[in-house]
Design brief:
about 300 residues, alpha/beta, Aminopeptidase, eight-stranded mixed sheet, 10 strands, globular
């Protein structure tokens, strides 16, 4: 059998065994600190929000506690507005955009709704700047019953414990150049499939739910984010990452059947944001601001 021409682990056409998965894990490198960059920020917010540890990652429970921040004055009669970030640990602005929203904007809405934020669902992935968890599992394909992803299973259990109606779920993501240079080749190698080269959209876009299309809601977010960063254009096929554009910067997926984080509730309004941090037209600060802007636009559309 031949080795993969497009990825240094495994053999062409052969799905990874535990040996290859361990080989992949052994090459991972811790590149930043979840405790210093995220947990300290959440602790600082604990005077304004209820900070709850809803689980931990068994690979190192001390280093990787899982946290949620919720409204201090919870009112079961008010709608729940759910924000999730860091499902893919390498997508930095999802984590820090959620935290920045809590710092700068959340107080403007606390009388109208209950706010719930899970800012870093995959802390090991955050530290290692990776899409997968330590076991080569993609948490954002794992929001399903009997999930094999601790990250997804813990988040779903916590969200199921909330009292009240979840009106909004906005899940904060990025599409990076490393999707094509690392993560999609690794996925093909892991599954013993051919790697098909794709393209990375230059700009911000949204992924809605094809089973629950909320066109005006998605449009409202796009219009707001235009003031902060550019919107990804469709390609020559009228597609964004292989899906037909449904409006400027908008595509739809069947989020529940794909096991995506955005499908873990029955919220009337749900969307996944996708920021492009590698664009020559955007800075990391622009990406954080785009995430905050998207959250704010979602809240305003629903509450006002």
């Amino acid at each position: 059998m031949t080795t993969n021409a497009f990825y240094p682990i495994g053999q062409a056409g052969v799905p990874w065994s535990d040996k290859e998965k361990q080989q992949w894990f052994n090459q991972t490198v811790k590149s930043r600190s979840y405790q210093q960059e995220v947990v300290t920020e959440l602790t600082a917010l604990s005077t304004d929000f209820t900070l709850t540890q809803y689980g931990e990652l068994t690979i190192n429970p001390t280093l990787y506690p899982l946290y949620a921040l919720t409204s201090l004055n919870w009112d079961n009669s008010k709608p729940i507005m759910l924000i999730t970030g860091g499902v893919h640990g390498y997508e930095t602005s999802g984590v820090h955009g959620a935290i920045t929203f809590l710092k700068e904007q959340a107080k403007n809405y606390e009388n109208k709704c209950n706010i719930v934020v899970l800012p870093c669902i995959s802390p090991w992935g955050y530290e290692h700047i990776l899409r997968w968890n330590p076991y080569t599992v993609d948490p954002n394909r794992s929001f399903v019953n009997n999930s094999i992803s601790e990250e997804a299973a813990n988040a779903m259990q916590f969200i199921a414990s909330l009292k009240g109606e979840i009106k909004l779920h906005i899940d904060l993501h990025e599409t990076t150049d490393s999707d094509e240079s690392e993560f999609r080749p690794a996925l093909a190698a892991r599954d013993g499939e051919d790697y098909l080269v794709g393209t990375i959209p230059d700009g911000f876009y949204l992924v809605g739910d094809s089973e629950n299309k909320q066109v005006e809601f998605q449009k409202a977010i796009i219009e707001a984010v235009k003031e902060v960063t550019h919107i990804a254009p469709a390609d020559e096929k009228g597609e964004i990452i292989g899906s037909k554009q449904q409006g400027e910067g908008i595509i739809n997926y069947p989020v529940k059947s794909l096991g995506l984080c955005a499908g873990m509730t029955d919220a009337l309004y749900s969307t996944t944001t996708e920021v492009y941090p590698d664009s020559a037209k955007a800075t990391p600060d622009d990406c954080n601001k785009a995430q905050v802007c998207a959250i704010k636009a979602a809240f305003d559309f629903i509450l006002e």
